Amino acid sequence: MSGIRVVEVAAWTYVPVAGAILTEWGADVLKIEHPESGDPQRGLVTSGLVPAGAVNHMFELPNRGKRSVALDLKSKEGRELLMKLVETADVFLTNFRPSARKKLGIDVEDVRAHNDKIIYVRGSAAGQAGPEAERGGYDMSSFWSRSGAADNVSPESLGYPVNMPGPAFGDVLGGLTIAGAISSALFHRERTGEATVVDSSLLALGAWAMGPTIAGAHAFNLDGYPKKTPDQAANPLVNTYGTKDGRHISIVMLESDRFWPELMTVLESPELITDPRFDSHAKRAENNVECVAAIGAGFAKKTLEEWKIALKDINGVWAPVQRPREVVTDPQVEANSYIADLDDSAGTAFKLVSAPVQFNEQPGDVRRAPDHGEHTDEVLQELGLTMDEILEYKISGAVL
User: Could you tell me the EC number(s) of this protein (predicted)?
Assistant: First the structure.
C-alpha cells in the first residue's frame, strides 16, 4: 500500500480499524478529528475499559500508524482544507450516517466533485438502505445480537444470551473485511480506471459469520439450531473437556473413527478402544453422553500443563483453552511475531496484536496511534500552506 493515501472521517473502532490495518500494509492514513473533541474513543478511559493512567489501548488498536489532522468540518475553512486533502487521496473512509454526511457536505457526490477517482468507503450499523439506514449501532447490537450469534451460542439452561467474547470483537473483524474490500477496489481501479463505492455493515458481517447456521435454520425450518452443552456433545471427539487443575482442552477430531484409538491410548484408557458402546462413530453418537463422560474422566487425570506435553505429538487436532493474557507468551504467537511491542507518545510500553496477514513472511509495520492533531501542521504544510496561513486557520478555530 505504499503510495496510497486514505482520508478517514470516522470514529470509534469498526471503520477506523480498517484504516489501521492499511497503515500496517504501508498506506498513509490521515485521521480527521474535530479540533476540540477529537475521536470520542480518546476519552474511553472514563468507561472503565482502560486503566487510569495507562496506555489507551482501545484507541491505539484502531488508530495505529495514522496521522491525526484536526479540522472543524462544520466550518467553511475546515471543509475546504478537507477537500484539498481529498484531492491528494485514493480512498475516502467514513462511518458517518447519511444525514451527517449530507449536512457536512462529505457525501459521495461532494467528495467525487473534488476527486472523481477516489474510492468512497462507508461502514455502517445496518446498511445504507432500508428503514434503519440512519440508525447507529455497535458490534454488540448489530453484529452479535441481531445476527443470531448471541442466541445461537447461549445454552437454554443459561436463561440469558451471552455477551461477545470481548470488547470490539465484531469491530475488528469488520475492519479486516473493509480493508480487504478496499484492496479489491484499488485493484479494480488499477485494472479499469473506475473508482467504486464500497459498503459494509456490522449486520452484514454478523449474517456472514452466521451464514451456515442461518442457511441451515432456514433449510430445516428451525427457529435455531439445537443447542448442546458439552456433556451432550453429538460427536464426543469435537468438544471441550476439563483438566485436573480446572482448566480446559478443546479437541476437534472430526474423523472420529480415525482418531479414537489414538485418543484413548493417550488418555490411558486403551480398554475403551474396543468397548462395544464406543467402537464406531455411530455407536459413540448413539451413546454420546456416556462417551463424553468417559473422555472427561480421562482428561481429568492430568493438569493442563501435563496435557500439553502428553498431547504434543498426536495426530488429532487439539488446543488449550487459553486465557487472553496467555496468548501474549504463546510460543507460536511469539515465533510468528503476531504481537508487536510499542511505546506510546509518552514512552509507555504496551503491546498490540498485528493484523493477521503477512506479506513475504514479514509482520506488518505496527506503529503507535497519533496524539490529537499531532500531524495537522505537517500535513497542511505538505499541501503547500505556510505557517502564517496555518496560524490564521488556528486562530479561526478551523484547525487545531
Answer: 2.8.3.-
